[in-house]
Amino acid sequence: MSVTSPQSDSSSVKDSPRVCIIQDGARRHYIVPMALQQGGLLERIFADWYVKDFSPARWIAKLVSRFDPVTGRRMLDRRREGLDDKRVISNLWLALRLARAKKRFPVKEDYFEWAAARQAEWILRKGFGRSNMLYGFIRNVHPQVWRIARLQGLTTVGDQMIAPARIEIEEYQLQQQRWPGWEKPVPTDALQRVDLIEQMSWEHCDHLTCGSDYVKQGLIDCGVAPERISVIPYAPSGSDLPLIERQLHPDPVLVGFVGAVCLRKGAPYFFEVAKRFDPKRVKFVMVGPVQLDPQRVRQECGPVEIVGSVPRSQVKDWLSRFHIFFFPSTCEGCAGAVLEAMDTGLPIVSTPNSGTIVRHGTDGFIHAYDDIDGFVESIDKLVSDRNFRLNMGLNSRQCIERYDLSVVHQPFEGRHDGC
Question: What is the pTM of this model?
Answer without folding.
Answer: 0.83
